[in-house]
Write a structure and sequence with these properties.
With 185 residues, the chain is an alpha+beta fold. 14% of the residues lie in helices and 29% in strands.
Length: 185
Amino acid sequence: MATVFLFNKPYGVLCQFTSSAGRRCLKDYIPVQGVYPAGRLDTDSEGLLVLTGDGALQARIAEPRRKLAKTYWAQVEGLPAAEALQALCGGLDLGDFVSRRCKARSIDEPLGLWPRDPPIRVRRNIPTAWLELELEEGKNRQVRRMTAKIGHPTVRLIRWAVGAWTLDGLAPGEWRETEALGKGA
């Protein structure tokens, strides 16, 4: 059974082990050699990053054809109506590709959510709402592009889960070792 590391990537951390221009990266948090991210998170996104030294497992986790669901919590500007959520679920033309169908729903602010450092910009006259999106793909800045397309730009994005792995019990910057999951991964 392959070893897997689950890491709660803080805002501003690069998803690589080498830094550019002194920016924080994975080596600042994970003192393990020979592991690599299975998928990526943008520097301005937070949350679950799965790492492993098993190349085949890494490919299975990251490969969209495997349909390993990824769950995101997105704090968006405005209060999306039911029609906006339906548009998210149905697939959106984002110019260079059409997103696959997904699950999207409004949620309350997640319990136990840590403050972001630095804090998000709050605008007094623009409310925010939280959405939970479950995707089986993960293209560059996809969630941000999808929410912007429906008129509700993302102001904070957290990946909560990859398959059955979750952030449960991991504070920002913390990691833990676990075993690979069965057939989903």
